[in-house]
Amino acid sequence: MSNVLVVYYSRTGTTRRVATELAALGEWDLEPVIDMKSREGLIGYGRSIIDSLFGRSTRLAAPRHDPTGYDL
């Protein structure tokens, strides 16, 4: 299984570290999901809660990798 794309979102960096290590172990490509709205710190945490409560969407940066080209 060599055609794998590891896609992740990390607000604090913990998931990024795990995804990076996983991708390195399998020698797979890595794709972060990048929120165009800042979610950093206490204000970002509060913004995330409010957006969730009101069902607000967010804009994401365009991906570098096309996920349709991967098996998993």
Layout: helices, strands, pairs:
Blueprint: E1 5-8, H1 14-26, E2 29-32, H2 41-53
Parallel strand pairs: 1-2
The helix-and-strand class reads alpha+beta
Largest sheet: 2 strands, parallel
Terminal CA distance: 8 Å
Helix count, per DSSP? 2
Task: Give keywords.
72 residues, alpha+beta, two-stranded parallel sheet, 2 helices, 11% strand
Describe the structure.
The chain has 72 residues and is of the alpha+beta class. It is built from 2 helices and 2 strands; from the N terminus they run βαβα. The protein has helices at residues 14-26, 41-53, and strands at 5-8, 29-32. The protein is elongated. It starts with a strand and ends in a 19-residue tail after the last helix. The mean pLDDT is 94.
